[in-house]
Batch of 3 targets.
Target 1
Amino acid sequence: MEECLICQEIAGTVAVPGGQLPTSPEVAAIHVPPLNAESVYLGYLMVCPRRHAEDFAALSSEEAAAVGVAIGRWSQALRGAGAERVYVAVVGHHVAHLHVHLLPRWPETPADVAWHAVDEWPGARRGGFEEAASFAIQLRELYPNTDNPRSD
């Protein structure tokens, strides 16, 4: 859909930091770009079906499985990059294209910062487009294959 921001990001008509992360033919994973701000929370990823689908109910079994694999893969990658936890959320309120948010909790985040605010506290790891691109490239280099990022 032309007006869907997620479809535009997947199609490459809206730039995403570092390009798409390796996934599968059914799924795309990206580092969130700083769309309405000068900076973005570093490590904030999204996993989306390539086909425009509004929610999990609209996915085929193959697409749903591929989304799950991509969530696991990039959660592992974020943990490998130093995240203490990776929060997974689907809201689907603003953009009607399923996009699963992966929010890392970095070790310096104070204990009293809620999961949904890890990207908002004053000391949160933030950067511009180039810093987010470097982070995405680092993740891609750490986990270059499309099977399982763990080698153990």
Note: Residues 5-142 form a domain with the HIT family, subunit A fold (CATH 3.30.428.10).
Target 2
Amino acid sequence: MPDSHASALDQYQIGLTLRRLRSGKQLTLSRLAAETGLSTALLSKLESERMIPTLHTLSKICRVYGVSLSHFFSDPKRHSLSITRKGHLVAIRGSHEKVRQIPLHYDQIGSNRCGASLFEFPPKIRVSASEPGQGLSCVIYVVEGRLDLNIGGDKDLLDAGDCACIDTDNVVMWGSATHMPCQILLVKV
């Protein structure tokens, strides 16, 4: 019996998405079956789009892949790419005049919507990245130099190439740890 919703769901290519997720995790169908409690035959039919999964079935699969149901139903027509050329980047002076924040993207109304910035710290300068109770959720990557990172009194030194995921309500202080400048890439999450 044909499924009346099949044509409406075709645009989402659920089977292809399932196959890509499984390949990305390097799982066999039998391993995925063991982890979800679903049969390999069912999983094969879902990946080849011979069958449309129920939300309950898809939810079981989502748990294994660590994605939400929305991963399968995002609008495939929505696409956005914005390139900001180096010559268009404008530095914003931070709370300390020598620290520079360079937002890496602006939308049409001038906001840094993607939340990505490049921070440049002069030698031996440390500043506050957050205030008490303000919270900070971001990923930082040290591009060059050495970053002195102090979160609520816990100190760490990060070298070029190091990355940190921060999600805290504690006060965050950071800056160059040496007599050389330090540059980090920050992406808000």
Note: The longest helix spans residues 14-25.
Target 3
Amino acid sequence: MVVVGVPGVGKTTVVDKIVAALPKAKLVTFGTVMFEEAQARRWAKDRDQMRKMPVEKQKRLQKLAASKIARMKDPVVLVDTHLFIRTSEGLWPGLPFEVVRAMKPTHLVLVEALPEEILKRRAADSTRSRDSLTTDGMVAELELGRSFLSVSATLTGAPMLIVTNREGRAEEVAESIASMLRSVAR
């Protein structure tokens, strides 16, 4: 299952709670796998620096990460990633054809929240170097996220689920996703 959302939506919090609810689930952060590949090649010193690389290098890292994830044999693999990344060349798909083809996800989940909540979360996160956006910019990113999710679902044939992660409700959202996964596994 691939879980996506714009930066600051609370996606990682939701994914962590899904993993806690599903003991056989393995959590994989796509960006971390990409960063490990970048470090092995001495291309980046931190994850945020990868966004500033030429897109061709980023594409290569994406393919390497997708292949590595596809080889994982765990019963449930939850991939935490983004649908698009802001680069110096423009918005770049986080799940291009080569990546979804390699990973073959069984489910796609988009985590959303209210634009104001996302902006507040991003402002409070001092651990990351994120682009600043206006409320209108965040609304545009959320709309774009739905478009990218639709394309990914079309390419993979995987069902897509859109959930809203309101402030203080991550546990509820995670349980609804975990419940869906349990019902599919039966």
Note: The longest helix spans residues 135-156.
